[in-house]
């Protein structure tokens, strides 16, 4: 027992495919107060997609470990989808990666990671495949066909200049960071910075002196 440092709890934060339940400190007050009498801390489960201020409130209320998962891979998916739209504008059809088509083909042909989780009708399932907050796409990024198409996407965009207006259209936060001079417009950098948007929110919550 002396090796236990934390208790995993659910402080009223959750998400499903389309909705987010946000942290309400007063609703979790009894749980937050209980840990004060122990030498342990809480690990808050499913904190993905909370606001920066919610992360700070969770840490203040003794949820010292914030579990994150799909929010990071959801940001990766957003970045890949955005780059695919840029590719459609900049690369001739015969040279494109077809990454979005390949993702659909693979996931529909190999539905094991998503079928029992998503809605049953085809149109709803396609929305879930593409945009569910549960982000079941994350299990497919290592697939050889998808990996190859992502590599081709990045290679294609490395061979052209990414117009600032196009970046602003599909990745507006990254456009702001480019304008501030803290980011260079390569596909790899845009992907990493998009994922770091999520980590910056967690850093804000976990670091009281960060504005």
TrEMBL record:
Metabolic or biological pathway: Carbohydrate metabolism; D-tagatose 6-phosphate degradation; D-glyceraldehyde 3-phosphate and glycerone phosphate from D-tagatose 6-phosphate: step 2/2
Gene3D superfamilies, alphabetized: Aldolase class I, putative tagatose 6-phosphate kinase domain like
GO BP terms, alphabetized: carbohydrate metabolic process; D-tagatose 6-phosphate catabolic process; phosphoenolpyruvate-dependent sugar phosphotransferase system
Annotated GO CC locations: plasma membrane
Lineage top rank: taxon: Bacteria
GO MF term list: tagatose-bisphosphate aldolase activity
EC number: 4.1.2.40
Name of one Pfam family that matches: GatZ_KbaZ-like
Keywords: Lyase
Alphabetized PANTHER family for the sequence: D-TAGATOSE-1,6-BISPHOSPHATE ALDOLASE SUBUNIT GATZ, N-ACETYLGALACTOSAMINE PERMEASE II COMPONENT-RELATED
Protein name as it appears in the record: D-tagatose-bisphosphate aldolase, class II, non-catalytic subunit
Gene name in the database record: gatZ_1
